[in-house]
Each structure stands twice: as structure tokens, then as C-alpha cells.
Amino acid sequence: MAKTIENSCTNCTKLENGCCKTCIEDHKNNIFAPLTNKEIEFLIDDKKQIIYKTGETIVKQNTSSTYVVCVREGLAKLYVESDNGKNVIVRLAKKGDFITGGGLFNGSVQHFSITALTSVRCCLIDSAKLTTLFSENNSFAVGLLRYHTKQNNYLLNKLVNHTQKYMPGRVADTLLYLKNEIFAEKTYQVPLTRQELAEMSNMTKESFVRILHQFKDSNLIAVDGNTIEILNESSLVAISKNG
Questions:
Q1: Displacement of CA 197 from its chain's centroid (Å)
Q2: CA 4 → CA 45, 70, 86, 114, 152, distances in Å?
Q3: Could you tell me the pTM of the whole model?
Q4: DSSP letter at 100?
Q5: Domain 3-162, architecture per CATH
Q6: DSSP secondary-structure letter at 13?
Q7: Per residue in 219-231, pLDDT tens?
Q8: Domain locations along the chain
Q9: Which CATH class is domain 165-242?
Q10: pLDDT tens-digit map of 7-40
């Protein structure tokens, strides 16, 4: 069960460096930059800090969207659940990520689920306060819309790649995404199962494992359990571009 640790937020005394403002500070160069101190204080008032254990659900698809999530520590997966039981992981969320659930401006319904891949500490901010600031601060509104547009463009690009690329290109995309966007290391330990990696690539587990072995046999990567090392990034990039 998720653990609420509200006191660690509500008892902050340092305005600029306290944990209450940490989520905001992580985004001080983008969407939250236009906010005044008074607006930031309004936004974080009654904010809750929650710790989710590995495997716990942070957000459930098709439920009411009453808050946005700021990830403080850990790694989570954002995925779409289908009626036939097949999931598609659209991206991962890491420290510093700001997640609206996709329903902030669209019926207040969560459009995907979020589950903790590791222990995740995050802050939950009332989405109603976010929409209030959206209507009162034009610069903040523009920044938030740009943020949503960027996320939508990423999802559109991922959809196109999944429908137009062959399976080796999709596996290469997944490995490069983990290396460049999530871990920023050539060698990284992945807290995902082979099934989840397949769901990131929109293919069956068997197909993903087969292509992973092909990449390993071609000395493009080294694999030891959940540890993956990128040995030939240029070749993976070429496979990604060629589909």
C-alpha cells in the first residue's frame, strides 16, 4: 500500500529550497518559470507526498483525474490498457518528470495507467489549482500548452514508428530510448521484464527476445540478465532509421 508522508512537505520552512518547492524547482526553466512566488505557494498548498512500492498503481486509466504527479525519485511506466489485456507502454517517467495523466484539459479522465517500476516518491498536486493558474497567468498557460503539445508529438511519433517500422527498428528504438532518455549511460540495469520491454516495442515477448539475441550475436549489445550494454550505438541508430 502506498505510504503518505504529508508532514515532510507541510513542515518545510525554507521557501526556495524546501521539499515543497522541489517539484517546481525541477521545472524552473520551463513550464513553472512564469509563476510568481505567490502563485507557487498557491499551487503547492495541501500538496501530498506519496511513496509507492514497486508494482503499485499510481494512476489508473479511465479514472477521474484530480491531481497531477511530480516524480521525486524512482522510475514508473506509463501505459495504455486495452480490452484484450494487451498493454502498450508509451514511455517511462523518472525523477523530475511532471505527469498530467492526459486528462487535464480533456474531461478530467486519466487516459493511461502509471505503475511504479521501482520504489517511487512523488508529489500529488491538485489539478484544479493548475487550471486556475492556467486561466490567470498567460505565460504559464502558453508554457503548459507547449508542454502538452511536445508530449502529444512524442506519442504521435511513437505511434508512427510502431506502425511503419519493422521489429528490429522498434527494438533499436527502445534500447536507444533507455540509453539516452532514461539512464544516460551505455551500460544500464533495466527494472523491466522482457514482457514489459516487448510492450515498449509493441510486439510479443517472443519476438522481442529473438531480436535481442540477434543484436547480441551481432555484437551490437551485451546482455547479462537485466543489464544491457550498448556496444555499437551507430549501428543501432542506423537500424532505427532504416526501420
A1: 15
A2: 16, 14, 31, 17, 31
A3: 0.84
A4: -
A5: Sandwich (2.60)
A6: -
A7: 999 999 999 999 9
A8: 3-162, 165-242
A9: mainly alpha
A10: 444 444 333 333 456 666 665 456 788 888 898 8
